[in-house]
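2024-03-11 09:14:02 DEBUG pipeline.ingest accepted 1 chain
2024-03-11 09:14:02 DEBUG pipeline.ingest length=139
2024-03-11 09:14:03 DEBUG pipeline.predict start
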Amino acid sequence: MGVHADVFGIRTKGENDILDITGNVADVVARSDLKDGIACVFVSGSTGAITTVEYEPGLLEDLPDALERLVPKGLTYQHHLRWHDGNGHSHVRASILGPGITLPFQNGQPVLGTWQQIVFIEMDVRGRDRQIHVQLVGE
């Protein structure tokens, strides 16, 4: 059993920027000496989220629309009242989706469905530099 850790950076444009990071994660897996195991993909930060989607134009519109219905931007958030940074909804949305995912990899490649990609979703109201951590455990 072995462990491999790596990190890569991305730059976002701001709220609702959805970036396909599948290739970045696949590169980390391929560079490791591991062939089969589990990959943890994690963003350090409280206003970003990682999940899987079918990365296509319709869904890239549908997901932010759904998040707006679930956690409307225009409500009063105690976080905003305390810090005056306008991103209380960003923190709530990121908490609902979560900062990371765990997925298997086999034969040196992430295991994903035909139309499934790993994405980072920016919830913050401004663009940010993000660090995505990938930790592999396997053999």
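2024-03-11 09:14:41 DEBUG pipeline.report Residues 57-70 form the longest helix (14 residues).
2024-03-11 09:14:41 DEBUG pipeline.predict end
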